[in-house]
C-alpha cells in the first residue's frame, strides 16, 4: 500500500515552465499564467473549466519547474495560448508509480520527502524508474487544508 501503478490514457495539457526561481514564487507565477489561459486569454477567447489534477514537474538536478493543467477530452482541439511562455502538450498514454498522501505540503522539502519515500518503496520492490525528475499532483483548491496530494515517478525500460 505504499504506492499504486497507474495507466493513463493520452491527454492534452496546458503548461508553462520557469527556472531559477524559489518554488513558491514559481508556482504562483505559473498558476496565474495557466489560469489566464483557461479564463479566456487564448486564441479563441474560450473559457475552459478548471480541472484536476494540477501537475508540477520538478527536475532533480536543476532549478526548473513545469506546471500543467489538464484539458478535458471534451476539448479535442484546445485553443492556442496567446502568452508565448504557455504551450499545449499532448501526452501519449503512460504509466506512473504514484504515492498518495494528505496534508498541505508548502515547501520543496516536503514534496521531496514524499518522493524519496516513493523511491525507497520502488527500490525495495526492485523496480526501476527515471531518477531525473518527479511529478507532483494536487487535487484540491488552495484554501483546503487537508488536501489529496500525489508524487509520481515513471518506469524505465
Structural features, described:
By secondary structure, the protein is of the alpha+beta class. It has a single domain (4-155), classed as Regulatory factor, effector binding domain (Multidrug-efflux Transporter 1 Regulator Bmrr, Chain A), CATH 3.20.80. The protein has two helices and eight strands, in the order E-E-H-E-E-E-E-H-E-E. It has helices spanning 23-38, 108-124; strands spanning 4-8, 11-19, 54-59, 64-71, 86-91, 94-103, 133-138, 147-153. The protein has an eight-stranded antiparallel β-sheet, with helices on one face. It is globular. The chain starts with a strand and ends with a strand.
Give a brief description:
The protein is of the alpha+beta class. Helix content is 21%, strand content 36%. An 8-stranded antiparallel beta sheet has the order 1-6-8-7-3-4-2-5, covered by helices on one side.
How would the global form be characterised? globular
Name the CATH homologous superfamily: Regulatory factor, effector binding domain
Question: Assembly type of the shown chains?
Answer: single chain
From the alpha-carbon coordinates, what is the Rg to the nearest angstrom? 16 Å
**Can you summarize the main beta sheet?**
8 strands, antiparallel
CATH topology: Multidrug-efflux Transporter 1 Regulator Bmrr, Chain A
C-alpha termini separation: 23 Å
Please state roughly what percent of the residues sit in beta strands, choosing from under 5%, 5-15%, 15-25%, 25-35%, 35-45% or over 45%: 35-45%
Helix fraction? 10-25%
| H/I helix tally | 2
Strand order in space, largest sheet = 1-6-8-7-3-4-2-5
Q: Which stretches are poorly predicted, pLDDT < 50 over at least 5 residues?
A: none
The CATH architecture can be given as Alpha-Beta Barrel
Report the order of strands and helices. EEHEEEEHEE
Summed over residues and divided by their number, the pLDDT gives a mean of 94
Question: What is the class in the CATH system?
Answer: Alpha Beta
How many strands? 8
Query: Structural class of the helix and strand makeup?
Result: alpha+beta
Overall tally of structural domains: 1
